[in-house]
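Before the break, one more example. Copy the sequence into your notebook; we will annotate it together after we see the structure.
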Amino acid sequence: MKPRALYSTVVLAASALTAITPAVMASPGTQPRAHAAASTVSARGREFSFRLSTTSAARPGTVTFTFRNVGTVQHDFRIGGKQTPLIAPGKTARLAVTFHKKGRFTYMCTVPGHAAAGMHGVFTVR
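Here is what the structure looks like once it is written out:
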């Protein structure tokens, strides 16, 4: 292949790659779970732990936490200065929190002794 033809092929390939890269990057499911752009986060609480569907949001904004108590006693969910009421076993509550800036935000159950027993964690806004 002549140098000029090789150069044209490389330029054409690079142009095609540049054109499709944004579409591939924007496809659902291509981001790692811990870095997903979160607008809704599923949170499950039990004695004495939480499990969140994602541990971060890609940017500041409003995140709705859907908290389901899968334990056997009442729990609540507190983050960003807001909290749910006490939730009975098997019940669910929603909590919308607006994060105005990037940072690390502690979430916890505020029932006495529950956070100390492990019902806490950190949610990161990038």
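Strands lie at 40-46, 49-52, 56-57, 61-69, 78-79, 82-83, 92-99, 103-108, 120-125. Residues 1-30 form one domain. Try to locate both features in your own notes.
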